[in-house]
Structure formats: C-alpha cells, structure tokens
Amino acid sequence: MSSSQRTAMLASIGITGLLLGACGKSPPTAPAHVAAVSHAGLKPAAAPASAGRSRAIRSTPVAGAASAAVATATSAGPAAAHTILSPPPKTSPFMVTAVVLGNAVNAARQVTHPTDQFASSSQTIYATVATIGSVDRAALTSRWRYLKGAGIQFSTITQPIATDGPATTTFQVHNPDRWPEGRYEVTITLDGKPVAKRKFEITSR
Asked: What mean pLDDT, rounded, does the chain reach?
C-alpha cells in the first residue's frame, strides 16, 4: 500500500476517543467521572503561657534611713491564649508513573493484557495512565500519531483530573474499520508538557 493510500485511509477513519478519570485516595477508587470526545476523520493536529501567681514583695531597710516596711502585691491574670498553627502536611508531587497499552480493560478501567502489538482488526486501543501525588486541578492529554512518513496526528483527548492520591486515567481510540499497518505513538502531556511516550505497532495479523 502506497503512502498516499495509507494517508487517504487514515483520513477516512472516524475515531471516537473515550476517556475516563479515576481520582481517589489509596487504594484507588472506581472512576469518578467520564468524558467522551469524538473525532471525525484524521487531521494534523510558642508553647502556651501558664497563669501568673500572686506574690508578696517586702523591701529591705536601708542603713541611715528610717526603717519602713513596704509591702506590695501584684497579681497577673490568666495568660492570653495563643493559637499555634501546624504547618500543612507535605504532599508528594503529582506525576505520571506509568502508561500501559492494551485492547481490553477491566471494571476498574485498567488494561488486562498489556501489549504494544495490535492486529489491524483491533477496533479499540486503550492507554491507561497511572499517577501519584495530589493536585487540585491538572490536565492530562493523550496525543495519538501514525508514524508513517511525516506522521499524522489523528486524535487528541484531554482529561481534567483532581486527586489526593494514586489515580488512573484511561484513554481510548476506536476505529470501526481496519487500522493501517505500521508504527504508532501515543504521547501523554501534563498541563501541556510531555511526560511520557509509548510506541506501538499495528500488523496484518
């Protein structure tokens, strides 16, 4: 098959990207949200103080002066209350730890049989992205490319994520027809910065 024929075939493929994010504490919980993206065709793309006490103070007579006893008493009321704020607990940085490819996932949206070799008849390809650490809001994106010639980016899917522990985000691309044979690559970015890449191959088997 010529390069122009492969490009034409890719351009005619309708790709549907489905992504699910699972955010939670350890152990990971089930996915919390689902988002779907459709792609029509392929195109480039101090310690508290203690209370005071009352005490009596008597002066000592001074030589050459009339003796006089002076008694004074002082009383300190309860010390003012002090609030000591503990520093916020340290959290581990949010980062991607693994990207796993496969053609099937379980109920927890995790790839069941990791592989980087797919048959051209495999309609759906999954990429699960494992993360650790805490983040209030971040954006995970998967960018899928066919590496033949200059390469064609045929799918881009972004998933917002907020988590306070280990989480898994699952991306998928779907082709109802046969995939063009050759080398492919999926790149994962975190807030626009590439953090992981996985290459895979589609064959005629």
From this structure: 73
Cα–Cα nearest to 109, from 129, 93, 124: 129
Domain count, the chain: 1
Q: Which domain does 148 fall in, by range?
A: 21-43+91-203
Q: Residue 26: its pLDDT value, please?
A: 38
Q: Which of 178, 78, 166 lies closest to 118 in space, CA to CA?
A: 178
Q: Is residue 131 part of a domain?
A: yes
pLDDT at 48 over 50: no
How far apart are the C-alpha atoms of 190 and 204, rounded to whole Å?
A: 33
Assign residue 171 the CATH number of its domain: 2.60.40.10
